[in-house]
């Protein structure tokens, strides 16, 4: 029979907490008590469990990774993958392991995220948001479990969040086109009820109004962040003339789909229609022409999420929000004729 920390405590006539402190070398335990407990551990060959090691420190060094809501078709979007890879590497260097949760049924009783955190004695959680977030995410947010959200505003007593400053994303695109005398601009967003996409759409509309550019409602389309939806949205815009002179898609994947539709229609990019995406995924560098984009600093977002969560867990910082500035990256798909030679292949 496998011994437990309670068995060792009973043999030594001490509390389980005392045994845990001796195992973890924490607290002020008398020499004789420590010697007695260590002798029993040695004689019995007791191997402390994970729970025993964490009992005295009250920390498990485990982080929950929550893919909340409907997360972009099995969460295969390159942007999120790169953010999580940066988070995973950084949080590992800080001494934590990751336990991945999904929003599938946790048990027959359908326990929620907060119950899971308590069950696994997690130190904290990173919450990466999709669409249609479950109520249990917000219950977790309002608890005392330290949480950091990526692309979701968490406002609980022990919660912070980090995201790209999405209000600036479309502003950079519209400004670029305006400065190069391009005013017939279309927009392809994510789902109609997508929080992030709607922030970008609102930024697009605000910037168009700010520069006095007329908005064509027929050129505002919606997709789901993936290539097929960008292709279909662009096809719909090309059924009637005049065509837009430029298209801003709220994700690179949709921009690549739009690129395919434009080419199939016998039009040229950027000569006939200029194209800009958002995210700066790796595929942007290998499309033909190479895809201009608004870069989200995925490495920075992932690292910030890790350090913010570590600080919350250790009481080193108050809950906060960080908005990461986007960066406009001009490549072949939106270059001016005079720029094409210098940008080609970048």
Automatic annotation (TrEMBL):
Recorded GO terms, molecular function? DNA-binding transcription factor activity; transcription cis-regulatory region binding
Question: What InterPro entries does this protein's entry cite?
Answer: Cro/C1-type_HTH (IPR001387), HTH_LacI (IPR000843), LacI/GalR-like_sensor (IPR046335), Lambda_DNA-bd_dom_sf (IPR010982), Peripla_BP_I (IPR028082)
Q: Name one Pfam family in it.
A: Peripla_BP_3
What SMART domains does the database record attribute to this sequence?
HTH_LACI
Swiss-Prot/TrEMBL keywords: DNA-binding, Transcription, Transcription regulation
Q: Where is the HTH lacI-type domain?
A: 3-57
What residue stretches are annotated with the HTH cro/C1-type domain? 2-47
Q: Which domain of life is it from?
A: Bacteria
Q: Which residues form a coiled coil?
A: none
PANTHER family documented for this protein: HTH-TYPE TRANSCRIPTIONAL REGULATOR GALS, LACI-RELATED TRANSCRIPTIONAL REPRESSOR
Q: Kindly provide the name given to this protein in its UniProt entry.
A: LacI family transcriptional regulator
